Amino acid sequence: MKEKSTEKKPESPNQAVVIGTSAGGLRALKELIIQIPKDFPLPVLVVRHISPDATGNILLDALNKLDTINCMHAINGEGLKPGNLYFAPSDHHLLIGKGHKMLVTKGAHENRSRPAIDPLFRSAAVEFGSGAIGVLLTGYLDDGTSGMKAIKKCGGVCIVQDPNEAEYPDMPRNALNNVRVDYCLPIADMGTLLTKLVSRKLPKRKKIPEEILIEAKIADRVLSDLNSVDKLGDQVPFNCPGCGGVLWKVGKDSNLRFRCHTGHAYTAAFLLAEQTNKIEETMWTALRMFEEHKNLLTEMARRKKGVGSQSALERVKMSQVHIDRIRAILKTNENESGNDMPT
C-alpha cells in the first residue's frame, strides 16, 4: 500500500493585490513592481490598457531581469500563487474566478478596452472581499473607478496614485472624486504600504452587493440576459456603440455608467468618446460620398449641353456647399480631440 503523503498543500491566499493603469503605465508599473520583493506573500494581478496586437513582452522582459517578484502572463484556469505577478494578455480580460483561479476571457469590451480594469477589480472584490487590495495608477478617463467602488463596498483597500505626480492624472483623479479611497500617495511609497498591508488583520467579510455580483457574472460570461441587466438600472434612449443594442443606466450615483445586455459597459466619459468616434466615422463617410457625387455630376455636366449641363452644375455647387460644411465640422472636431483617450 502506498503511504499517504503528509505534506500539506499550500493554502490559498486570502488576499490579493490588483493593479490597473493605462496611458503612462509602462513607466509607472516599472517603478512600482521593482519595489515588490520575490518573497511577497500575495499574488498580484495587473491590467494595463494595450492594443490588441501588442504582446506586452517589453515590460515583462525588463521586469524579469530585475531582482523582483516573478512576473508572467496570466493563463486561464491556473490558480493564484503568492510571489507571482500576473499580467493580463492583450485582447483578453483578466478575472479572478471561484477557487481563486484566473479567468482569461474574450468577454465584451468595457470602457472601450480589453483588457479593462473594472472587471478585474470587480472580480477581486467578489472573490476576496475585505482581502482585495486595489491600486490605480496613471491613465486617461475613468476606467477603474467603478472597480475601486466595488472593492470599497466589499471592505477591501483602495490605493490611488497621487494625481499630481501621475503622467496622466485622469484615472487617479476620477477615483478620488468618486470613491472614498484609503490611500493617495506617490508610487515611490506604495511598496512599503503594500508590505504593511500584507500583515493587517482582515475585517469581517461583508455581504457582496447584488449589483456587484451581477456585473461580475456578466464579465465572466455567465449571464447575458435582459432580466439580469434590468436589475442594475433603467433603460436609456442610447444605443451601445459596440453592438447597437439598448443601454441601461447602472446605479443611481453621480458616476454615470451604462451597460448593454451582451456585456459591453461604459462610463459616461467613455460612452461620449465612443459616440464621438462613431460620429466622426459617419462624417468621413458622408464627405467621401458627397465628393463622389460632385465628381459624377461634374463629369455629367461636361457631356451635356444647355439646360441639362446647367442643372448638373447647380447640383455640383450644392454638393460643394455640403462638402465645405462637413470639412468645417471635421476640422472643429480635430481641434477639440486633444482630450480623447489614445488607442
From TrEMBL:
The keyword Nuclease does not apply. Residues 10-201 form the CheB-type methylesterase domain. GO terms for biological process: chemotaxis. It comes from the Bacteria. Pfam families: CheB_methylest. GO terms for cellular component: cytoplasm. InterPro entries: CheB_C, Chemotax_prot-Glu_Me-esterase, Sig_transdc_resp-reg_Me-estase. The active site is at residues 22, 49, 143. The keyword Hydrolase applies. GO terms for molecular function: phosphorelay response regulator activity; protein-glutamate methylesterase activity. It is an enzyme of class 3 (hydrolase). Keywords: Chemotaxis, Hydrolase. Its EC number is 3.1.1.61. It catalyses: [protein]-L-glutamate 5-O-methyl ester + H2O = L-glutamyl-[protein] + methanol + H(+). This is protein-glutamate methylesterase. The lineage of its organism: Bacteria, Pseudomonadati, Bacteroidota, Cytophagia, Cytophagales.
